[in-house]
Amino acid sequence: MRPFKSLIAAEQLTPDVIAQLFKAIDQMAEQIAEHGRIDLLEDKVVALLFFEPSSRTMMSFQSASQRLKAGMVFAQNASSTSFEKGESLEDLIRMVESYSDIIVMRHAMPGSAQIAAQTSSVPFINAGDGGNEHPTQALIDVYTLNKHKGRLSDLNIVFGFDSLQSRSIHSLSRLLAQYPNNRFIFTGPTELQPSKEMLDDLQALGAKCEVTQEIDLRDNVDVAYINRLQEERFSDAQIFEQNRRRFRLDRASVEGSNCIVMDPLPRIDEIDVEVDDLPNAVYFEQASYGVPVRMALLAMLLNKL
Ligand code: NCD
């Protein structure tokens, strides 16, 4: 039985659910290597609604659906749908649920995933709701992290450089706070550090949290999780311009450390390309897990695991 009908937030990805999903992801990766495509969802249709820009998330959901032989229906931006005419999200979902067996949606409004999941009679997956959450990315991230470090507890993790607005950082820190003895070190411009609410929430779950401007990756750091400044979410464009190159991971700061460097991508200014060929850099590998991860999630929510 699936643990929940819809995936809205990373808090639903408890250690038990993660353990179940990791097995399924490994199996999906094996199936891809052996057969390319499998028949698991040949009787299903996946709706992909992407009302904000996306490359990796959209294409890996497409690829995952293709590899499971599901059919697909798409809506790719708000201006090509009836949103432009003023249709509500609820009405849109009521229509799409009759065209599909599961709905995947990215939407600019924080909280839109909750509304859509409540409205939908079919399972729903949040592929990013504004600056709020991105739980499927968090699943990719912990899968990658576990491959490299062999554990999801007892970790020192640096998060940068826009913890205030990065939905990937929100979801990953929330997920990892459920595991024991994790320490989070948030770094970046003062204006872009996590909100008090976020820090309280993580600390209440047992994670140790620090906020700093100075980091040394050789100082016992296991993971540097770096995400670009979220340009499209700044209310003041000047704050973005002032800070976009102030924090940047370069080769000298990474070389010789035991720390893996992760990034949900796209990479803009936050990591120098010279970091790419260091063994620490795992961000392109991380992106490659998007397909088996999303295959496992689609299969789980459609009761096929
Ligand atoms: C992230 C997102 O959309 O939030 N990208 C992704 O899904 N891989 C990160 C980002 O856009 O900065």
CATH topology term of the largest domain: Rossmann fold
What count of domains describes the coordinates? 2
> First CA to last CA: what distance?
8 Å
Any idea what the radius of gyration is? 19 Å
User: With helices defined by DSSP (H or I, 4 residues minimum), what is the helix count?
Assistant: 11
Name of the CATH architecture of the largest domain: 3-Layer(aba) Sandwich
The protein's oligomeric status is single chain
Characterize the overall form. globular
Order of helices and strands: HEHEHEHEHEHEHEEHHEHH
CATH top level of the largest domain is: Alpha Beta
Largest sheet: 5 strands, parallel
The unreliable regions are: none
Q: How many distinct beta strands?
A: 9
How large is the share of residues in beta strands? 5-15%
SS-based structural class? alpha/beta
Q: Name the helicity range.
A: 25-40%
In CATH, what is the homologous superfamily of the largest domain?
Answer: Aspartate/ornithine carbamoyltransferase
List the ligand species. N-carbamoyl-L-aspartate
Strand order of the largest sheet: 7-6-5-8-9
Mean pLDDT: 96
